[in-house]
Amino acid sequence: MSIVGAPKRVQEISAEGEEPPPEFFVKKDTIFAGNLGSVSSIQIPIIDLNLLSLNPNSEAYKDEINKLLDTLSSCGVFQVIGHGMSSSYLEEIRNLIKKFFCLSIEEKQKYGRVADGYEGYGNDPIFVEGQVLDWCDRLLLTAYPQDQINLQFWPQNPPNFRNVFEEYCNKVIILTRTLLKIFARSQNLEDDAFSKEIGERTLVQARFNLYPKCPKPDKILGVKAHADASIITTLLQDKEVEGLQVLKYGKWYGVPTIPHALLINVGDQLEEGLVKWKVPPFRDLN
């Protein structure tokens, strides 16, 4: 599959006040959720990991695990607290990536994605003519396994980026393994049932998205509708601007931001793994 050249950075187009090129405009056959103002908010369940570390026979544990199972069977998306990362630490992560995107184009381009690659700063790859592009610049980095890391794409500016990013990724990996253990217990499986299937060398990538001001918000999408192909996706939402939407029972809903929480989405790979284990799917996809 060939990859064609990338367009001008979205951040540049927005800053210069230019009219977005036609490749950014949503086509008639594209799933479109609409403006956030016209979309109802959904109450995403908040799961407290501290309660799920209690004695399984306790009422608090039973209530929390039942709440988790309810959301996994209906949507597969929930907010998690009690994850061990303070609000100030999460704010440090938000500020770190903001500082990166505020750098000059020339500085950011030092870590730019190459034409035939995925990692680095820039736009997503373009595979075919007429592909609808997302109104989004991103920084995509591999964080694990160690021998798959490409440090040439890891920014050296801001100066503390690499150390903070590595620490954050390690915390998210620990959180993911904790969730896999909880999922296994919820299905009366051994604690390591899912983690053994996944193995020790599962690819972990981090993606930081920037959505600049868009002059055509009713005709352009920040990110097109999609399902996560991952095992688990952990999302740190912007604290100031809400924009995430989820599709539930054929209707789009806006997801409110909880500053001290992390949003968890059960990915396609984990759902497929449940079939092998003959475990009922977490989500009702009808």
From TrEMBL:
Residues 202-286 form the Fe2OG dioxygenase domain. Gene3D superfamilies: B-lactam Antibiotic, Isopenicillin N Synthase, Chain. It comes from the Eukaryota. InterPro entries: DIOX_N, IPNS-like_FE2OG_OXY, IPNS-like_sf, Oxoglu/Fe-dep_dioxygenase_dom, Plant_2OG-oxidoreductases. Residues 1-21 are annotated as: Disordered. Pfam families: 2OG-FeII_Oxy, DIOX_N. PROSITE patterns: FE2OG_OXY. The keyword Nucleus does not apply. Keywords: Iron, Metal-binding, Oxidoreductase, Vitamin C. The keyword Metal-binding applies. PANTHER family: OXOGLUTARATE/IRON-DEPENDENT DIOXYGENASE. Belongs to the iron/ascorbate-dependent oxidoreductase family. This is Fe2OG dioxygenase domain-containing protein. It comes from Solanum tuberosum (Potato). The lineage of its organism: Eukaryota, Viridiplantae, Streptophyta, Embryophyta, Tracheophyta.
